[in-house]
Amino acid sequence: MRVKIFESIINHKMNTITAEELLKYADQFNIVINRSQARKIAEYLRGKNINIFDDAQRASLIKEIAKAAGPETAREVNKLFKELTT
To answer: Domain of life, per the record (predicted)?
Structure first.
């Protein structure tokens, strides 16, 4: 039961994150991202109900992040997601 709650909290945060929060987390986890990229990613995430614990949904999200912020940033974000989901 605790695992589902943890997943719900993380997914909720992902689906409601702001560009400012994204910049803060990127800095915290040493992921290079600029304000424009953060805004694009946050806009994409908002209201999508993406489950980052689902491999297919996470892969789709990473592809969208690569479009918005570049492949290197997408790889770094994917590393972070893997840490959170395993």
So the answer is: Bacteria
CA 86 – CA 30 distance, rounded (Å): 20
| pTM for this prediction | 0.79
Range of the domain at 63: 2-85
Six token digits for residue 79: 């590393």
Q: pLDDT tens digits, residue range 5-59?
A: 989 998 998 899 999 998 998 888 888 889 998 898 888 888 888 998 999 999 9
Number of domains within the chain: 1
